[in-house]
Amino acid sequence: MILIGGKSYELLKDHKNGWNPEAFRDRYSEVLDRYDYIVGDWGYNQLRLKGFYRDKHPKATKDTAFSGMVDYINEYCNFGCAYFVIQKNRDAQPPKEKEKPEKHEKTDKPEKTERPEMPERPDKPERSEKTDKPEKQPEKPERPDRTERPDRTERPDRTERSEKSDKPEKAKSGPH
Question: How many CB atoms lie within 10 A of CB 152?
């Protein structure tokens, strides 16, 4: 029987000496408390822990039910790796916390209804300190009006333009 996090577990299967209590204690997290079974598999000298629910648990899905554990081992674990399976004992109940006083009972502490004030942050200017003037945009060169541009008839033809340029024209080819 293994005790960790106030819960007791029982080792169900130890494949290829995969069970290592020290490594398990190091890797164990409170997130695993909710599961009924924990599978630990070794890959590249690291222990990976995965939780599973009992088959009839309300939160159990195909991937998190104990009946899907064999699929998990075959699909996600390294082939032939060492692993172990432990089961949470239902007998062990977590220790009860101190009972909290009910709302209608009087307590020594006054109830807080107001939020505490946040300290001012001098590094951030308030909105009122911002200037109302927009930043000046760099001036764009003015475009000539349509009247100043030459008409299409006055523009040089494309052939004239291509003669003036030093680059040879690319031959148009049909679809390939």
Answer: 6
CA distance 52 to 37: 5
The answer to whether the CB of 53 falls within 8 A of the CB of 62 is: no
- Rounded to whole angstroms, what are the CA distances from 11 to 21, 100, 119? 11, 36, 53
Selection from 121, 94, 75 nearest residue 30 by Cα: 94
- Contacts of residue 24, Cβ cutoff 8 Å, sequence gap at least 6: 2, 4, 40, 47, 49
pTM greater than 0.85 (yes/no): no
What domains, with CATH codes, occur in the chain? Answer: 2-88 (3.50.4.20)
Residue 61 to residue 65: CA distance in whole angstroms: 6
Q: pLDDT digit string (tens) for 94-130?
A: 444 444 434 444 445 445 545 555 555 555 555 555 5
Q: How far apart are the C-alpha atoms of 70 and 37, rounded to whole Å?
A: 13
Q: Which helix (H) or strand (E) element contains residue 10?
A: strand 7-15
- Angle 31-36-42 from CA coordinates, rounded to 5°: 70
Which pair of structure tokens corresponds to residue 4? 């960790």
